[in-house]
Amino acid sequence: MRLLGQDFGSKAAHSPLVTCRLASMAEVGNLSPEASAPQAADERLKAEVCVAIKELLPQTDLAEVSLAEFRASLAEHLGFDSTVLEGDCKHQVNEWIRATLQSPAAAPQQHMAEVVQGLGAEETNFKHQVHLLTISRVLPGTLDSTDLRDIQAMSRQEVADCVRLAFDNPVYPPGTGGQRRSKADGLVQKLVVFQEEHSDGSKHFHVAVKLNRTRKWTTAKYTLRERDHLACHFSSNHTQFWSAVRYGYIPTLSKPVVDAHPVSWSADGGWQALDLFAESQRPWNAAIWKRRHEEAERATASEGGKQKKPRFNKLDLTALIMSQGLTTQAAVMEYVQDHGTEQMQLFVHQRQRYLKDFVAEAMQWGEARQQAAAERQSEWSTLCATADKDCPHGHACSYNHAAAAFFAANSMSLSRVELAVALRNILVTGPAKTTRVPMIVGPTNSGKSTLVLPFDELYGFAHVFHKPALGSSFALRNLLKEKKFLFWDDFRPVEYGQRTVPVTTFLSLFQGQPFEVQMSQAFNDGNTDFEWHRGCVLTGKAKDLWKPLPGVDEEDIKHMKSRLLIFTCTETISALRATSPCAICLSKWIRDGAMEHDAAAALNAPSLPFSLPQGTKVLQGMDELAAKAKLPQVKAAALAEELLSLGAVDVVELSRGDWQSLSAFGKLLPFEQKRLLSSL
Q1: Which domains are delineated in the chain?
Q2: pLDDT: is 606 or 461 the higher one?
Q3: Would you say the pTM of this structure is higher than 0.70?
């Protein structure tokens, strides 16, 4: 069968639409079946499609539903597969939709009034991060009598510049006491300009703006009027950037023609850096998704079963699990049995054996945004951000008391500050020739494991690589599974060096050098090359820790020791056994200890040496080092100024520790620190 020149399968052959076509072909008497019957049938089809359009329109949100979504609904309403109208007939069907919707063309000024009305009235108290403004065309008579600018000569980029500066560097009304902001303190994070044309060829602009913090639009509007001579309208209907972008980018039934060449700008990417299709998509929300499915079910019921029932799918189940807090297989089945629709019950029953996995995947789906944000943050930044939080246990935190007792008991053999610095260094740079891996050794029940156990909570248990099983053939393969931290508790380097983690692998792993991760060849073609550049900490029993064993001799042990920075505790503290890990308190003592070290180094720094040539203003080699490390000019200048004040003349005089002791070094971002240290 063919519809408007397109072939369809057997499913379409049983639809009322095709039946109608067959009947129309039989009714054509004087015309040849080859030529005239198809033409007459197409007219009948057009009529039926238009009837279907009119039936669906009252149930459709014209401002939200795109043409593609409406065509899919239309195809299903006619008994076809949802993709049938996406072929050659798509454009013709679009014309029928538009013809059904269109009223006689309005005058440009009337059309503009309708656009502004649809955007909603301006609310002067509207304070948000997202704003959608419309810059309207100015009638010739108004141009002659005011100082308003003729926007017909403006480009999209000119409009973008005006709007951006209206927020970033505004003009305040007299008597308001406002202060001008510099462009360096820019508010605008993202911006998109859409140009739309009227029937007479004139144009107006829509601008979607996202700020980095909430602001009212009143000052920006005043600036555009006074400085740029532009009249604009600020909509209060769009509170999210995706919604504002979607208004101008995605064709809808109420606005089928959109700008084909919009201009975008972002603070971190510049011009045309935004993916507007991605920016225009509604972010997923469990409650909203669940509500939309329920509304579709209600609409079907209100139509007396005329509409096709919405299918219940896995994403619907995910939304249900998340919105209702269903954390177990039994909880899902209980809810569905008591409150689920027929479709929901059927879906869950058919997939009962997979419910446990569905619940786990739903939890993973719900935590994805938080997890992705954590992945973009360095491990040291994560620790510092955690340290800024308040411990939920307050003064009663068992871990905090245990850590204090541990450091007090071992004050003669172990420094809290030095351990904190060692952990900071390994988190910032990972293991290297100049950054050794901290290992805490001591007797049983000394609290060494308890002290660092909260790393599991800090980075997430699944993202911490724990000690592999002794004798494992593929001991390190889990390193390839998005691990952020290595924590080997009760580790015995010599015993593991016999087979599980060979000495050569140990040396490469804890120096940040490449090595092969052994993989099962049943599922892989060869082993995987790998380098570890993240944080790590080891603990172990002091007794016989470095006793040679067959296959690991004294020379091997000497090399393994060179990769480690040993912290020895000597006292046994039984109270540590009943301690609950606390990532916040762990982060606090590490961060604060590192800061204490930096402060002490700054206070004990020598004055200007006698050898410093009078009038020296340039630190030799600093420009080259800053360029190699890709440091911002301002931060490089701060480092140089501090070093000059301490008497440095050339960067070659400085050790790694000298750089790390600088207060300006502490103000570098973690990866800036890492690049600087690797460039020495």
Answers
A1: 2-101 (no CATH), 108-279 (3.40.1310.20), 286-366 (no CATH), 379-591 (3.40.50.300), 605-679 (no CATH)
A2: 461
A3: no
